[in-house]
Batch of 2 targets.
Target 1
Amino acid sequence: MYYYIFEPAKTSYERSYIERIRDVAREVGIVSEMTQASPARSPEELAAMGIVKQYSTIVAVGDDSHINRVISQLMNLKPDFHYAVGIISTDSQSMLFEKWGFKKPEQACETLKFRKLSRFDLGLVEPNFYFLTSAKIECKKPTRVTLEVDHWRADAIIDRIEVSNNLYILVERFIKEPSLGKTAFNWLFGKSNLRADRSIFKAKIIRAVSDENLPIVVDKIVVGHTPCHIYRKPNALNIITKRDNISLEEDNQERNRNEYKEQK
Amino acid sequence: MKQQEVGTIVGSSVHLTGTIKDSSDITIFGSIEGEILSDQRVIIEESAHVKGPINANEVVISGQVAGTISAKSRLELNPTGTIKGNVDTSELLIHAGAVFIGECSMPDKRAEGEKGEEFFETEEEGLKEKSTEAKKEQETEPSDLIFGRKDEEKDEDSDEERESEEIKAKEEESEKRKK
């Protein structure tokens, strides 16, 4: 049966949204136990308790950081066990909201009840943090970083590196506009004078090495420092996903996002 | 998080060593020392420097490349592009201003259908073949003419014979009359 791990509500809207999810889930009959993270009980501890109690469907309700912490704990404790993980994202600005954001709690509970499972890749930051979103390496000033990937090695001066769960690597360097004319033009029209030089790579394993120890951040949590390995775990987790729609999925996502914002 | 196909892009601030392999497009703005392999398209931009072989379905070069290039379907060399190395492709397009130092080989596309035109691995071989063909033509041309002349001569001979026969016949008739 279903074991819920809620994130503590930050706003009054979130509180009422979570309350409605609780009520609807009880009505639909997809509840065994509901827990809420707090300073006394972290999401990791609650996830561990769910495993001890042998729940096979664990639902994380909250923002990206909360969801990643629950997933990471599940993967660390029983990586080979095929859980069904339910996700309800409550942050409309987050990455996971696109796939697991619901404007109404009824929709969220219906999706959980229908239980359409899909397998998703996870990223793993050494030694033991799994993520479904992306890991970032950000520097205050341009820093030389070496990326050692599969069959090649790249040296670059970077401002930011973002590694997604399926190990797409985005390397960014922000360069000031060299031309004075363009700078003036941009200043007049309120445009940025920084030009982003972007690189995109794909990999299975990355090792990031830098002169300074740079923090690796996943959803505002520092999970490691360079030098460090980041791995891709293909098809690592079963996640309950929305049922397919006949209409365009992107339109629906945009509509959902707008309606959620309006309600907020 | 999105699991869609995105090609590889090497930015201008990146120096890469090793083999890059991708099933989709590869675009290069920076510098690379090593092999580039793609099932689709490789684009070498103006700011790019590549030292090593390139193997792809289609290659577009605006930067500098030192190494062999194998483009299955098409190779385009833009005005700012430089190639130092051999090229193997079935379709080659070089814009004015581009630099190409090396040899080009192309597969014989029409060999199966027609035997009209021949493709040579190097320019020298092609020139040699052309010169031998020209010699052969020169040798064959006079014989054709001779045949032509001979035919004309034959015609002329036959006329003369007729004339002489006519004269002989006239002479015989005149002798008979005298008798």
Target 2
Amino acid sequence: MSERSAQPPEAKKPAKPKASRDVILAGLPPQAARQSNERWGDWGADDFTRGFFTRRSALIIIAVLALAVGCGEAYAQLTAQGSERDGVLATMLKWAPLILFGRDGELGGFALNIVISFLVMAIGTVTGVLLGIAQVSTSVLVRKPAWAVTQFFRNSPWLVLLFFTILLMPFQIRVFGYSIPFPDWIKATIGLALPIMANISEVTRGAIQSIPTGQWESSESLAFSRSQQFRLIILPQCVKRMTPPWMNWYAILTMATSLVSIVGVSDAMTLTKLAVDADGRSELLIPMYGMLLMFFFLYCYPIARLTQVLERRYAVVT
Amino acid sequence: MAFADQTAHGARNSNGAKWTPDQPIISLKGVRKSFGPVEVLRGVSFDVKKGEVICIIGPSGSGKSTILRCINALAPINEGSITVEGQEVHDPHLDKLALRKKVGMVFQQYNLFPHKTALENIMMAPIHVLKQPKAEVEARARKLLAKVRLAGKENAYPGELSGGQQQRVAIARSLAMTPDVMLFDEVTAALDPETVKEVLVTIRELAEEGMTCLLVTHEMGFAREVGDHIYFTDRGVIIEHGPPKTFFAEAKDERTRAFLSQIL
């Protein structure tokens, strides 16, 4: 409990053991994990500089994997299937490259999840920031539609949006005689970019409105035009405020990329299912999906920790 | 130089004639202004001549700050007219940027840009608004910082400066736009008593150099010392005005006397 002494005394701390928190982080849906982060927000910055993964979180990863492998082995023993086949761990290692990098010669697996997450975040951030700025426009004709678009996509289920884009968009577009293919994973990327756009729009609007009005007045009295005010004075101050929530949405999004498996994209989730089906061994279910869970955890957890550190560092001191 | 700019601008007063420096630089006629159902200015009229230092005093909520904000077109008025160098401020076709290049304003809360250093705060508007060359602006900004006694603080961020220092940077930032008029909106109200003085010294120097200044202030001693003319406002109207000597010694109105006896 050495971390405890390093924490600022004012940090509120429910009397719960730390370990349960990591289990919650690993197992619960992202929103819940995020809320728990905020509630527990109590890890010192030095803690972070020691590395993304503390001993504690490494132990949890090993424990979960061991549990998954153990479950599989035990099941195999009980059903007396273990003797002639590969061990559970060996099978997991056999499939890991496929699940991580996809089939030979094509983009897939967890690598595709990450590529999709990058693309979605890039599209969502650019469009979301513009939409957020539109939400604070002085013109009602810009402000209201921007608000409506934001609210619509912010309050729609991601999976439904995914289905809509998959079904509505053509599989290729013909432009000047050339046909540009539109594979499913690109459509899925656009489908996921819509809710991210809406949420980044809200983050942007919130950040802009959190800038004191004095900044607008003083820059206005210095004869800056409105676009200069945004570009030179308001938005630069928003970047710091937006970084923690922006990263938070990235972590949430990365976990949500597993949704694309439902619409037939060969991401890590799809390939895990294929691997399990190929071996036809029911005792592999828990270990294989346990491994997939760990891949996501290993990727998202450092982001969550970095977010916490930045949140603390950029906290608005009043 | 500044004068040549204005005439080149061709600013015309309400009669269509060109504004000349012997006419009032700022002129308010029957200005009325409401925030929703509350009328904060109920017919305010006064003139400011070039080089004059005007102090506006009065109880809080009497509309002092609103007067300044209307002169700078930060707040629209409902009735009446405000002209700056002969140009109607509330003309819908007004070139607001041209107006704000002539009128500098300093606020109670300094409102420096926290993500920029002191020097950058001063340099931003001349570079981006006036499109002046960077080297020239930087030399001027350094001079201005020295003028407000902050040489050596060029690279300090606002968060690293005291309130009085921030306020002096804010004054230098306004001056960098070479305005013809400076508006000071209770610039010492948020400061510690010890740092009030350093800001007042800066303003007094400006006044002595002939800058036209409009101050909303609670510093009666300062108003008496530097003011050419004192206006007392209450509930949106000017109750009484006069040169400081007669104003402070022989206030005629009941409300002025009550206010002064509370403050002094």
